[in-house]
Specification:
about 90 residues, about 0% strand, mainly alpha
């Protein structure tokens, strides 16, 4: 990522600065904002098409990362164990 020269020097001196955590939603929103920004620019068709392709690839990458981060639940979590509850005595 591009940084101003002053910021690069200060980051090299102080390694204790942590990178902020970006959520998948924030990343997808950022791609959307970039798309809107580029639509407002006076770009020729070829350049606009190249940017649209790059943004589409980036959007798909973030979606794949988001989907990969979902946890799959075990089907057994939806059922109560049999014989362990005192409610079973009422039947």
């Amino acid at each position: 990522m591009y940084q101003e020269p002053q910021q690069v020097e200060s980051n090299e001196e102080d390694d204790s600065i942590e990178t902020p955590q970006i959520t998948h939603k924030e990343a997808l929103d950022a791609v959307h904002w970039m798309e809107l920004y580029l639509m407002q620019q006076d770009l020729n068709y070829v350049v606009q098409t190249e940017h649209n392709i790059a943004l589409s690839k980036l959007y798909e990458l973030v979606r794949k990362l988001r989907n990969a981060s979902f946890k799959q639940l075990n089907i057994e979590t939806f059922f109560k164990p049999v014989g362990n509850d005192s409610d079973d005595d009422n039947y």
